[in-house]
Design goal:
By secondary structure, the chain is α+β, with helices and mostly antiparallel strands. Helix content is 15%, strand content 17%. It has a single domain, classed as q2cbj1_9rhob like domain (Jelly Rolls). It is built from 5 helices and 14 strands. Strand 1, helix 1 and strand 2 form a beta-alpha-beta unit. Bound molecules: 2-oxoglutaric acid.
Length: 332
């Protein structure tokens, strides 16, 4: 039995770690699982877990790169100057909830967006032609909040409902440290539910979806081992709770978002004079197959940025809206 901790160096070949979680809900697949079974489970439930998708060495590389990015060694992040000389990694990492678009400053993060096992699973559920438009690197140090119920297509709209998240666990993700929760099957109505400000300090600055015909009781915790990838549909209701694990621990994950190359990506404001029906945001990377719109070319618009966690206000993410008393990362 392995005694490795989440931060210990990867071991050599052989059983890499204890199986975690010991009791899994349905939907945990190995990389060589029957694609028809994977596709059928995903169609019904809107998510799946690809276990051991990233090797211990790949996970260790993502972990090391996360620290370099947070220290400012991959370029200055807006609102976050370089770490002070001599400042410990823990002191630096503890500041961060999440960095958006890390693949724009880091070859390691870019390689993860193209990683073979993940792309293979994505082609199983999306189709042969896949592009990536977004990445988010969650550090989620102890005490940081989660994200309220939401659907990712509310933020990143596709025209064929093909938006798919690939949530790569860099640390073991548990209920205690704020793993992902999903409502299985909630993608199937194909409805984008209304959103509102939640006022709940358990969650960050992003709004919450409400008015949907599902309850919290139907949600399941997607606890996964480091190296697993949770793949989920852009209409699936999902959330995470605060990291309540001890100080000095993290729930790091890299979330990349993908869609079919056949769909336009009407994300953001169309240029002046362009009809939204023709708008196709081209800051994308083709990760599998062919892009029928390759003739349009590609652009590099998004830059890495730090996501507000709410502790210092929500600023450009909706201003400083009131929180309810009695809520907080330590509360329920
Ligand atoms: O990792 C998390 O805590 C939340 C991730 C999430 O909600 C997303 O990727 O859309």
């Amino acid at each position: 039995m392995s005694t490795a901790t989440p931060d210990s160096p990867p071991t050599a070949a052989g059983p890499r770690r204890d199986r975690f979680p010991a009791v899994r809900p349905p939907g945990y697949f190995a990389a060589d699982a029957d694609p028809a079974a994977v596709r059928a489970f995903y169609a019904e439930h809107g998510y799946l877990v690809l276990e051991d998708a990233f090797s211990p060495a790949e996970v260790a590389a993502l972990k090391a790169e996360t620290t370099l990015i947070c220290r400012g060694d991959r370029g200055e992040l807006p609102d976050h100057p370089h770490a002070a000389a001599g400042e410990s990694d823990d002191s630096v990492l503890a500041r961060f909830l999440c960095i958006h678009f890390p693949h724009k400053c880091s070859p390691v993060m870019l390689a993860a967006a193209r990683q073979g096992a993940t792309i293979s699973a994505l082609t199983t559920v999306i189709g042969p032609n896949v592009k990536c438009m977004q990445s988010m690197l969650f550090i989620k140090s102890a005490g940081k909040p989660g994200q309220a119920w939401h659907q990712d297509e509310d933020y990143i709209p596709t025209r064929d409902r093909s938006l798919t998240g690939a949530w790569i666990a860099i640390d073991r993700a548990t209920v205690e440290n704020g793993c992902l929760w999903v409502i299985p099957g909630s993608h199937r109505p194909g409805v984008l539910w209304p959103q509102r400000w939640h006022g709940d300090r358990r969650f960050d600055c992003a709004e919450e979806s409400h008015g949907f015909p599902f309850t919290d009781d139907q949600a399941i915790a997607v606890e996964v081992e480091a190296g697993a990838v949770v793949i989920f549909n852009g209409y699936l209701l999902h959330r995470s709770l605060p990291n309540r694990a001890p100080a000095g621990t993290y729930r790091r994950s890299l979330v990349n978002h993908y869609m079919s190359c056949e769909s336009h990506l009407p994300w953001g404001q169309p240029p002046a004079g362009e009809h939204v029906a023709h708008f196709d945001f081209r800051d994308v990377i083709v990760v599998a197959g062919q892009d029928p719109y390759a003739w349009k070319g590609y652009v590099d618009v998004h830059k890495p940025s730090v996501r507000p966690s709410g502790e210092g206000g929500c600023g450009k993410w909706g201003g400083d809206r009131p929180y309810q008393e009695g809520t907080g990362p330590g509360g329920q």
